[in-house]
Amino acid sequence: MIGFYELVHKMEELQAGCVAATLIKVEGSSYLKEGAMMLFWEEKQAGMISAGCAEADLMERARRVAEDSIPQYVTYNLKEEDDLSWGQGAGCNGVLHVWLEVVDDKLRRQLLYTKSMLEKGKSILHRKEISLMPYPTTVNEFIKVEDTDHASLFSSGVQFMDHEGMVYTHLYEPKPRLIVFGAGFDGRTVAELAYKTGWMVMVCDWRPALLSKEDYSFPVETFCCESGGLSKVCMVNERDFIVVMSHNFQKDKEFLSCLPEDQLRYVGVLGPRERTERLLETKELPDFIHSPVGLSIGSRGPQEIAISILAEMINVFRTRNQAADISKR
């Protein structure tokens, strides 16, 4: 699935203007949540709003928006499952509220600014004021959230609505970062799957031969820690995900000793729990230590193990975010 970074990159490549469709409100369940975006240009499109139920209609509407430069507000009721409805048995079972607008020079600059801030680890709050009367208009505002710890206080979706218009907000947060210690085949497999799932990825190892960029078909930061551990790699924060899988007991021990003692978000250690207890010299493992790493799905081989690890990481990531959303209601 194409994410925000890829959409903005595509928008930057386009010579002509394009139309952006944003999912601003969801009633019930849906394939995607508020903040999902699509781009339309010429006869092409990128991104997703639904599981394919609304995209063809959005393409037609985007053509009209591009022609007359007038935004459109449209809802799709995917709850019904008869042949005459939008749902057509797709299983979304929700109502989608979508806003379409031309990506003019100002909005283009704002989106590029958002992407650059996210790449620097900063969160951006998007506030969209939508007027429906007397005719559709949009005012977009993108605000840098200086205190990252308070970013979770903001929620996504329509915060106010009446017959004249609405106010929509969405918090763009930096991609979660995964640090993999161990550049063997299984470590590279986890790193690649994590990148495709939306993580920024760093791979660390003490063996330079395993860190050649030629061995990676995706963007990744590599670091050789021959004479030191994580403290010489980067500043680790509480949002990072870390997977230790070098298959070398002493190197794993050295690496783990470099981790901050404060609460971390996720540290997965390959191997049985007893090995991890010996690595950390304690039987009382912190809650953020996941050992053995990955969900117990009977996985075999590097690919299946990587899937189990990513599934566990996604569970940790989404559960925390959903808890934050509930606390804001």
Explain what the structure shows.
Residues 178-313 form the XdhC Rossmann domain. InterPro entries: MoCofactor_Util/Proc, XdhC_CoxI, XdhC_Rossmann_dom. This protein is an alpha/beta fold. It has helices at 4-13, 55-68, 105-119, 185-197, 249-257, 273-280, 301-327, and strands at residues 19-28, 37-41, 44-47, 72-77, 94-102, 123-131, 137-145, 157-162, 165-172, 177-181, 200-205, 221-224, 241-244, 266-269, 289-290. Helix 1 crosses helix 3 (105-119) and helix 4 packs parallel to helix 7 (301-327). The longest helix is centred in the last third of the chain and has 27 residues, at 301-327. The radius of gyration is 22 Å and the shape is elongated. It starts with a helix and ends with a helix.
Key phrases:
single chain; alpha/beta; Rossmann fold; six-stranded parallel sheet; about 30% helix; elongated; disordered C terminus; XdhC_Rossmann_dom
Brief digest:
This is Xanthine dehydrogenase. It comes from Fictibacillus enclensis. The protein has 329 residues and is α/β, with parallel strands linked by helices.
Oligomeric state as shown: single chain
Individual helix count = 7
Structural category = alpha/beta
Biggest sheet record: 6 strands, parallel
Distance between the termini: 29 Å
Count of distinct strands:
15
- The SSE string, one letter per element, is HEEEHEEHEEEEEHEEEHEHEH
List the helices and strands and how they pair.
Elements lengths: L3 H10 L5 E10 L8 E5 L2 E4 L7 H14 L3 E6 L16 E9 L2 H15 L3 E9 L5 E9 L11 E6 L2 E8 L4 E5 L3 H13 L2 E6 L15 E4 L16 E4 L4 H9 L8 E4 L3 H8 L8 E2 L10 H27 L2
Parallel strand pairs: 10-11, 10-13, 11-12, 13-14, 14-15
Antiparallel strand pairs: 1-2, 1-5, 2-3, 4-5, 6-7, 6-9, 8-9
Helix pairs in contact: 1-3, 4-7
